[in-house]
Amino acid sequence: MIRSICAIFIGLIAGFLLILAVQQLGHLVYPLPADADFKNPETLKTLMKTLPVGALLFVLLSYIIGSFGTGVITTLIAKEAPLKLSLIAGTFLLITGASNLMLIPHPVWFIICNILIYLPMAYLGNRSLLLFKSPSL
Question: CA-to-CA distance for 32 and 59, rounded, in angstroms?
Fold first, then answer.
């Protein structure tokens, strides 16, 4: 039980770090305005309307890589039910992503893509290890 909880927790930490790293790379390619007040909801609303599609695609890429990594790391640590634990970790990412969507206005296409990323990618992260491990995963 403790190992399962640790697998989820460490998988989530790895996923969040991957998300952060890819988003930092996205900020290098698509820098955010230095003078923007990100605590002001109106500023966020205006910023989201003016962001290039590429910047939003970087965000989605970060969620893809982070969710996949979460699935991989959770599976590597888990001893029992690694697929189930990977999907639980993916669900935590989904909840976090959905709460972000509620706080900051996003384009509809982004919302749909965002919601559809987390669980399939956590699943694929788990399944990708079948190439290197026994089929008992």
Answer: 13
What is the reported pTM? Answer: 0.90
CA distances from 114 to 30, 73, 119 (A): 19, 21, 10
**Residue 2 host element (H or E):** helix 2-29
- Cα of 44 vs its chain's centroid, Å: 21
Tokens describing residue 41:
């909801």
For 4, the token pair is 């399962």
**Closest CA relative to residue 104, chosen from 63, 51, 68, 26:** 51
Q: Taking a C-beta distance cutoff of 8 angstroms, is the pair 58, 113 a contact?
A: no
| Strand locations in 1-137 (E) | none
SS3 108: helix
Q: Tens digits of per-residue pLDDT, 98-113?
A: 999 998 889 999 999 9
Asked if residue 22 lies in contact with residue 73, where contact means CB atoms within 8 angstroms, the answer is no
Tokens 């697929």 appear where?
83
